[in-house]
Amino acid sequence: MAERWREWTPPLLIEDVDQGIWLPGGRNLIQPRFTWPPQVIERLRAGYLCINCMEPHEQSWPVNCSLCGFPMRSEQAAYFAKEYGGEVELKRRDWDEELDGLEERRRKEDERARQDDQQR
Using CA atoms, how far apart are residues 13 and 32, in angstroms rounded to an integer? Predict the structure, then answer.
């Protein structure tokens, strides 16, 4: 059984962003936006998770990350302050509203199809 401090917590949401870096070979590097649960954010803030690669550490603020070598002790707090976007409230989907929207779209498509048929 893995140690408790090593437990992985998946992100709540991963969003694509519209901007990236185009490399000379035509490849586009994009950094998605992650929404993490509060316990993961606290572990990042307290220096138990590497902000660069998300590697967990048993002791807070090691000099460097044991996996990627990121200078956690000297750089992580500043990087966190720069990158942390604050708290985001995630709303649950209202499935009744979604179904109403589907019905409305179906009606509009039927209406458009009828208009197309009349124009022919």
Answer: 10
The structural domains of the chain, with segments of one domain joined by +, span 4-89, 92-120
pLDDT, tens digit (0-9, with 9 covering 90-100), for 35-93: 889 999 999 999 999 999 999 999 999 999 999 999 999 999 999 998 887 766 666 77
Q: How far is residue 22's CA from residue 3's CA, in Å, rounded to a whole number? A: 40
State how far the alpha carbon of 71 is from the alpha carbons of 33, 101, 109, in Å.
Answer: 22, 49, 56
- In DSSP terms, which residues pair with 21 in a beta bridge? 29
Query: What does the pLDDT read at residue 56?
Result: 94
pTM: 0.62
Using DSSP, state whether 12 is helix, strand or coil: coil
| Per-residue three-class SS string for 29-92 | ECCCEEECCHHHHHHHHCCCECCCCCCECCCCCCCCCCCCCCCHHHHHHHHHHHHCCCCCCCCC
